[in-house]
Design goal:
Chain lengths: 329, 306
Amino acid sequence: MPKLITEHRLNIILALILLIGPLVAHYAEEPFLVTLATRATILALAGVGLNIALGLGGLVSFGHAAFFGLGGYAVGILASHHQTYQPLMTAPFVINGTNQMLILWMVAIIVSGIAALLIGALSLRTSGVYFIMITLAFAQMIYYFAISWPAYGGEDGLSIYVRNAFPGINTLRPLDFFLLCYAVLIVVLIAQWRMTGARFGVALQAVRQNEGRVAALGLSPYRIRLAAFVISGMVTGLAGALYADLNRFVSPTMLSWHLSGEIMVFIILGGVARLFGPVVGACLFVLFEHLFGSFTNHWQFFLGAALLAVVLFARGGFIGLVAGRVEHD
Amino acid sequence: MSIALFLEQILNGLQLGVTLFLMAAGLTLIFGVMGLINLAHGSLFMVGGFVCAAIAAATGSFWLGLAASLVAAAALGAIVEIVVIRRLYDRDHLDQVLATFALVLMFSEGVRFIFGSFPLYLDPPEMLAGPITLPGGLPYPAYRLAIILAGLLIAVGLGLLISRTRLGMQIRAGESDREMIAALGVDIRFLYTVVFALGAALAGFAGAMIGAIQSVQVGMGEPVLILAFVVIVIGGIGSIRGALVAALIVGIVDTMGRFLLPSLLANVMEASAARGVGSAIASMLIYLLMAVVLVFKPKGLFPANA
């Protein structure tokens, strides 16, 4: 297939479209479309996280909803303690709730990183289809825990009455919150781009392509994979933190295996291992949901059919269609 | 806590265990022979439940419904294999996961479109409706006992099918060397369809049986599917014997955990807190069991020779 455009230029165009679209919507006084774009941006960030493990490392994790949900619950729980002025714990030292996003994000990243370290350390002892089933099972464990743990709403979830605060920004305005999420996404994408070319990124891709050779070079494939899995979980956890503030609500749905599947769908729709693959995929997903959802309740049927068609017949996803195959793969 | 209550919970655990075995046996066969991970297996479970409920409501006979659910699940399995699954055998696991996830979405919405969002109810057959008195004077629902017996009979039947018949020989040959058995003149494509339909029939049968003790609703197959994955990981992929042992362990550990943990914790903490903490930990118990098995036996308790 001829290359219509280089991937690099395509990425810049995509980033601009995602920025300009909501700006136009804002000045056309369509705040709902701004919120829709915010949703796409946050889901894209979750996909970017998974893409580090799945695209670069070849680790097919079917449990990333766990990190997304834990990031969300970290925000929800601390914000609820801030609302009620009850400290989260008093012994051995006092931890109070907070409504500062910067702190909440740090907590979300640390919590999901620790979870990814524990789940990854066990799951990465296996590979292939075992890895898929085990990541799915551990995510399901956290899901059931969230349902049966009554302290923070259980099955009903937990509301955040006022969106948390960020210094210098009025996060209650849809456009401000969108720009904040967009900035986070772009920063993470740049970091991933830098990482892919750095020594760690090269080693990670080498582990995917030929584990034996990497081991022969004296590197530990297990440790490289574990590091990638933890970074991947942290990014998805950060996305969960933003998602909690977008909806001002967290519930076990954020932890469900459907969500793990959807995050994976973003990647395949956009193109596996492409920097902007999850961004395109998440935007297509949100558009699809919005357009089909407006005239049928059964839009998920058509989503399934579209996904099946992409998997069977268009394996490079959107970016593969437009910018051609990955070089040197 | 009486012995009778304890025994009743053990039987409930066995009943969950044989249900999980029916699911896990199909999944592990399909993985063993075709190397395919099939998320849509839970949908076949759901279809079995819906077909049984619909036919039983139309004809008034549970047994007709049960037979129809077996036929419908097997036929649907064969069709799905021929139309979609066949194209996935040479693909990597990511493509298999995504394609079968797409099938899950389509089946769930399809069933919701046909039957609506409200759950259907399915009564157990009249001859099994009441309780039966076990030796020792314990009354236990006859229907649940029938599920345990049916599941164990199927386990024996499946074992005989695989170890004693010509089809079973081909399945075992397919597990150890696909290319060789095709080169020997066995119609491998037909064999794949048969194995997939067999797995689908087991799932549909399980769905119909369970439909009479739970409500029949969209998504009913998903928790069972994920538990069946846990069973396979513990038992070892591709091993029917491992699936049976692991299914019974998971069934009993899960049921007993939910039953015993809250009352055990009540000894060390206040009653209402013990209920909350106990049920939260009980819901994680089998996953912790899986983690322990993984640490000591990463290939499962009964690793297949593949």
